[in-house]
Amino acid sequence: MVSIASPSLSNDSKFRAQTNLSLLFQFTLIQINSFYHQLENLAKPKGEFKQLFQHYPCLSMFYTNFEKNFSYVNGQTAAKENWWIPLTAVSLYLSYCYFGKKYMATRSAFDLKMPLAYWNLFLSTFSFMGMVRTVPHLLHNLTTMTLEENLCTPAATQFGDGAVGLWIQLFVASKVPEFIDTVFIVLRKKNLIFLHWYHHISVLTFCWHCLATESSTGLIFTAMNFSVHAIMYGYYFLMAVNMKPKWLAPGFITIAQISQMFVGTTVCVLSGIQLWKGNESCAITKENVAAGGLMYGSYLSLFCEFAVKRFIIAPRKRAAKKLAEKNSKAL
Asked: What is 208-224 written as a DSSP string?
């Protein structure tokens, strides 16, 4: 006998298949909705600081216990109560710039090529480590928080504790030993330009003020500076040991520096707008915004002037000089 499938059985199978598809579709919608709400929760700080590896547990293995348990409070309090440190450092630094040049005026320059190369390597490595710790956290904030939240969320909630807080405080502290850059310039009798020493003293005082006042924009400035310095000091090291690739032109470094100053100026302007609008919840002071805007704005102007002189005016002068020499020989 040939068996014939029951019509009711076939309809029942179709019903089950349709039910399973419906359940699968509903489950998918629930998962998407859950993921969406998780993103919303990430985007809205609730007053409790979360480190990057707490958002993404797979990163936990890349952080030390010291970094995970670091508290910003002691460092911030020390910065607030010890303004004599940066002021004394700046005073001694300016004294060295003046008297050091006087002292070296009648003496032969020191070579110091390799010590300077290794100093640049150290600063590049340090900056790279700071970049690895701060840039990912900043990118997370930029992609999960609004612009206003990135500009105004208190440091304690946005980036204060943990690895990011540690490396921000190391960044501020590093502005004192970075004065050693100038020690090499003076001892090697190189040209100590205004942009160089002005940059060093203003960066130290501004960064110290950011830490002391718990500036909400501190992470942005720190991540940018770490990134540019990792490249810049690495470039100086490669130049010193004659390992710089031909494609890495000095103009790239200047463009990176100018870009940093442009972004810094923009951040200060946007922060100022928040204060001008009367946003009392914005965790930044008028003094810090004004100082930052003045500093970054002046940097932007000075670096652009430096770039024009070095990469436009100077080459034209050299070309004109060569042409004049060629013409004089022809005569």
From this structure: HHHHHTT-TTHHHHHHH
